[in-house]
Amino acid sequence: MRRNQVAVVGAAETTELGVIPNMSQIQLHADAALNAIADAGLKLSDIDGIATAVETPQQIAHYLGITPTWVDGTSVGGCSFMLHVRHAAAAIEAGLCKTVLITHAESGKSMIGKLPRSTPPDSLNGQFEAPFGVYGPPSMFPIPVLRYMKTYGITHEQIAMVAVAQREWAAKNPRAMMKDPITVADVLNSRMIAYPFRLLQCCLVTDGGGALILTSADRAKDFPKKPVYILGTGESVETPMVSQMETFNSSRAFKVAGPTAFKEAGITHKDVNHLMIYDAFAHLPLFGLGDLGFMPHEETGKFIADGNTRPGGKLPLNTNGGGLSYMHSGMYGMYALQESVRQMRGIAPAQVKDAKISVCHGVGGMFAASGTIIFTNER
Amino acid sequence: MAEPARAKPKPTPETQHFWDGTQAGELRLQRCDACANVYFPPRPFCPSCASRKVSVFKASGKGKLYSYVINHRPAAPGFTPPYAIAVVELDEGPRMMSNIIDCPQTPEALELDMKLEVAFEKLDDKITLPLFRPAKG
Ligand SMILES: [Zn+2]
């Protein structure tokens, strides 16, 4: 894909985040969509492309009253929205549509109008993982952690620092769910969930949503908000079964999506001013730093423990507080994208001064899928 | 009232040989006749070279502990926390999820790379699960 041909011209989260007992899941989609359309100064009738995940595009298009000429229902977990951005940019460049709306919402806490997730007993997961007691993401996502720690000499304290540094960012974000400062000792003394991970190393469970509007960069200058350009993109999938990953020392999907995006963007790691790495659990920023090529995996734990990613550090990471402290409705990728857009617009509550390039890296399932979007505010 | 039972696998045509194997006290894997790749989970072709000429064979049942969590909450139906959910690396190469029996479910007892051997746990007349225990000797 060519650089900077497509831009984000509308971006918004749901009016409320956290516990929203007065809205169903599709209404959360609509609330985010209407906020994003208002942000872009558009009408619903201007939208001719739609993408969403979990909920079907037909559900959301019909609920909003949109008749699209381009549709994407890619649903690969929490990074689906990174893939939607990539696909939408390609579609706009190819002339399949002009103005794309991407929506996410999840009634993750209140569970209103949300289908329960289930694993059929004759699926491969149902036959070869479910019988051994996996029960929700906390019992599955941390399974690679002990191997990763042993291979690279990473300590429990270093991984705890992921949660501590992100809480410092969350404290600067009025909309973050958890803002009180925490220490490494607080993390390591919090309730055990699935050893080696404790409560403060696991994401929040909340309600909310977000939406993005993309159009061609040539049109973008006529919109009310500062355009945020798509500089590079990447995507991949590996396996829906965490036990079947090629290795626990790395994510193959990360190693495809991340470098593809960097190559497309034509940048090096030194050019990155701001970084989002989807943190459903505290080990993901370590995997991301290594697999995206910021540093060898051996150095990821020390890099975070030394404070390089906290406020004032040289590589600001997860500046909204992340899935651990900002919010996590179940598919957090949209909120990571929203924070990258805020940073590129220069309006983030914890704004990184003069940031020009933001890398936003997502995961879907338990390392099952990955998408990376690199944004810039300069064309 | 019956205790809630653990999730029970339902074999498909492509996996039936595996579940027939565990019932017979064998851990069965597949090997590609063309490129000798050994793979899991079951499928009637080689995921490395796409050959449909593959053979089922009885694996050694030996392996080592690749990684695990000790799940505290929420516990799956049929499990009493804390319990370890492990990934075992088989001597033949493939890895599979399982549980470790005859071993305290603690970080001290569950040492990465410890040697394991398969043990079979019958759930009912149709399904026997492959679990693992610390290898003797
Ligand atoms: Zn082969």
Automatic annotation (TrEMBL), chain A:
Pfam families: Thiolase_C_1 (PF22691)
Protein name, per record: Thiolase
Residue ranges of every copy of the Thiolase C-terminal domain listed in the record: 234-376
GO molecular function: acetyl-CoA C-acyltransferase activity
Signal peptide (residue range): none
Provenance organism: Bradyrhizobium lablabi
PANTHER family: ACETYL-COA C-ACETYLTRANSFERASE, NON-SPECIFIC LIPID-TRANSFER PROTEIN-LIKE 2
InterPro entries: Thiolase (IPR002155), Thiolase-like (IPR016039), Thiolase_C_2 (IPR055140)
Domain of life: Bacteria
Organism taxonomic ancestry: Bacteria, Pseudomonadati, Pseudomonadota, Alphaproteobacteria, Hyphomicrobiales
From TrEMBL, chain B:
Superkingdom in the source lineage: Bacteria
ChsH2 C-terminal OB-fold domain boundaries: 59-121
Keywords attached to this entry: DNA-binding
Single GO molecular function: DNA binding
Keyword flag Lyase: no
Every ChsH2 rubredoxin-like zinc ribbon domain range: 19-54
Protein name per its UniProtKB record: DNA-binding protein
